[in-house]
Design goal:
The chain has 2 domains: about 150 residues, Sandwich (Immunoglobulin-like); about 100 residues, Carboxypeptidase-like, regulatory domain (Immunoglobulin-like). The protein is about 10% helix and about 35% strand. The strands form 4 sheets. It has a 5-stranded mixed β-sheet. The protein is elongated and about 65 Å long. The N terminus is likely disordered.
Length: about 300
């Protein structure tokens, strides 16, 4: 970085010293907008279908993987759509029930869902990069009542402000609310589950040695609406019941086989206290490191 700054300074001095050439132009590359789709429902699996809004109602939709509760999907628009960041989007949201809901997600091998959606809806013409080119166009499926999807688009951005100005969604949080199943989408089956990754880390003593036998719980992030000061509708957000359990090995290591997303990881033991006792993560992240101290 220091070398680059010196080089730019040298260029500026040469030009100022009397060069007849035009000053150098430093072009700032355009923002490459990424789509971020996050499922903060407690129980439903979610898929998002999207395409550039062109007026062609027969144009195909691209589809995210099927996102488990807490899971997130990130990809750049140039990789998803030929046009890069679109001026506007057509969206479809589909929610699916897990077949074995009585089993913790982390113990449900395959995580099979029903073959048809429990909730499905479409919205044509959501403002996007015609309003602002964002680094991340975030779409969040919130937790909602059975048979309902509540989807928040580009929260706290210029696009969110434009959605509110246009009055696209008659809802206090300016969220897209879908009730039931659009008949045109009733037969759309679920896509493949999002790929899982290794979310884990180590529990160590102060000297860096591993602590074996520590219990580790994982929970998913839940959100129902925007944060507000109205205590009558709290909690606006929180965490699910445990979806997975692990025990640290001889090196203090633990891991969960889950897709990237938003999770809470908690640590417990009768012999140790932990710094910190819990970690909120939005993976992909660096490995988690927690320090264990003996309870006196």
């Amino acid at each position: 970085m220091t070398r680059a700054i010196r080089s730019l300074a040298a260029v500026g001095l040469m030009w100022a010293a009397g060069s007849c050439a035009a000053p150098p132009e430093f072009v700032i590359p355009p923002i490459e907008t990424r789509l971020l789709f996050l499922n903060l429902s407690e129980r439903h699996y979610a898929a998002l279908r999207f395409r550039e809004h062109t007026g062609d109602l027969q144009a195909p939709f691209a589809t995210t993987p099927l996102m488990a509760p807490g899971a997130g999907y990130r990809e750049s628009f140039p990789e998803l759509l030929d046009s890069g960041c679109p001026d506007a989007l057509d969206l479809q949201i589909l929610l699916y029930r897990r077949v074995n809901e009585g089993v913790a997600i982390g113990l449900d091998e395959g995580e099979a869902v029903d073959p048809v959606p429990a909730v499905a809806g479409e919205f044509i013409g959501i403002p996007a990069c015609s309003v602002a080119a964002l680094e991340s166009f975030t779409i969040v499926n919130w937790n909602a009542d059975e048979g309902t999807a509540r989807v928040k688009l580009a929260q706290d951005t210029a696009i969110d402000a434009e959605i509110r100005r246009l009055g696209l969604f008659d809802e206090p949080d300016a969220a897209w609310e879908v009730v039931g199943v659009d008949p045109a989408l009733g037969g759309v089956g679920p896509p493949a589950l999002a790929d899982a990754g290794d979310i884990g880390g180590r529990v160590t003593r102060v000297d860096g040695s591993g602590v074996e036998g520590v219990g580790v719980l994982m929970r998913t992030r839940i959100r129902s609406r925007l944060d507000d000061a109205d205590t009558t509708n709290d909690p606006d957000s929180g965490f699910s019941g445990p979806i997975g359990f692990a025990t640290t090995d001889a090196d203090g290591a633990f891991s969960f086989d889950r897709p990237p997303g938003a999770y809470l990881v908690e640590f417990f033991s009768d012999e140790f206290a932990f710094r910190p006792p819990e970690v909120f993560i939005e993976s992909p992240i660096e490995r988690i490191v927690v320090v264990a101290e003996p309870i006196e």
